[in-house]
Amino acid sequence: MKKIVFVLLYALGFAYANQVDATLEVVKKFGNLPNILVQNTGSSYSERDLSQRIFKMLVADLKVTGHFIVQEAKEVVPSEMLVNFDEYRKNKIDLVAHIKAEKSSSGITARLQLYDANSGLVALSKEYKNTQQETYPFLAHKMAIDINAYIKAPSVDWMERMVILAYYTKPGESDIIMSDYTLTYKKEVVSGGLNIFPKWANAAQSAFYYTKYLDKPTLFRFDLMTGQDKKMFDSNGMLIASDVSGDGNKILVTMAPNEQPDVFMYDVVNGALKRLTKYNGIDVSGNFIDDEERVMFISDRLGYPNVFAIPTSGEVSGKVEQMVFHGRNNNAANAHGNYIVYSSRESSDEFSRNTFNLYLVSTKSDFIRRLSSNGVNQLPRFSKDGETIMYVKHEANQSALGIIRLNYNKTLLFPLQGGVIQSMDW
């Protein structure tokens, strides 16, 4: 079997050439990371609370990007106050963001005024609206995306993507909620019974698949636009949707119709089910890779779980290629371009929870980068641009969504209160 070699991503992560070039735009324009001052200008009683929440979220978002030195004003600033560009330049502040928000019968409106102290001009003047007041985190996320785009830094569009996750509410039951990446906004969409393994059905995030346990595991498709909860098909043993093609027309599912789990590809258009693996053991968790010409999956073919790949065309269990050569229990993986992130068990304690760490490898070199150091770190998922990884962390009887900013040596955790995360997608 042809050996794949891996590349070490440096601590500051200059892994992708296009991202390095974009980051240099920030340095070239400001001479260093831009210093941004964020101020809340919502001074009236009706504006103060909402403006402060959006203000705090925007400050946090800008710090998460890794593209700014962020300062937050301690006091509310009157919106009519003149902007003293000379004073800001004297204090080496490059950008000033004024935030104001208000509620109305139709929802919420937030306003951003971004000033460029170096040019003495208004860089951005924009309104953000939503009909639901509890969705205010997304208005802050959109502001951060726009400010980030102004300095021509690598995109952080992933911030406004919705997260779909299942969490256990009590033994034998789990609900599915939608949230922003910080878990500040949360909305219940499926409840009652055991509802697990949600997976977005398309890039627009207008629908998702999930498994519900009825008399047997059953795959459903929930349409967020219409509220329709459509039964797709069921199977004996197990049934999990693990990936969806770019056009949304094919689903990779793990099924065990004869008690042996294998990876199948389901055609949403014509209802055809194609078996991709046939092995007298465990094959699970298929993911499309290489422009959907191959599928990466987890198998115990070596006597322990590891990462393999197989072509989507040709004979069942055609040429199988081992993708990871480090670790002795690699039970989850995701891919982006030449890079694979996977979870590997690193302890064998039968009386307490074992440690699972995340590793990043490349198909182009023989080095490896460890991304976590403690706890149970599982279900890693790349962002669309490959610069950020989201994962689930379990530690000290608490679950959290983890965010790893690969190019900035930055990891953040957002705990879920009152539940244990079963699985997620974003």
Automatic annotation (TrEMBL):
Keyword Chloroplast: no
Family annotation (Pfam families): TolB_N
Domain of life: Bacteria
Keyword presence, Signal: yes
InterPro entries, A to Z: 6-blade_b-propeller_TolB-like, TolB_N
Domain TolB N-terminal: residue ranges: 23-120
Signal peptide range: 1-17
SUPFAM superfamilies tied to this protein: TolB, N-terminal domain, Tricorn protease N-terminal domain
Entry keyword set: Signal
Record protein name field: Tol-Pal system protein TolB
Classification lineage: Bacteria, Pseudomonadati, Campylobacterota, Epsilonproteobacteria, Campylobacterales
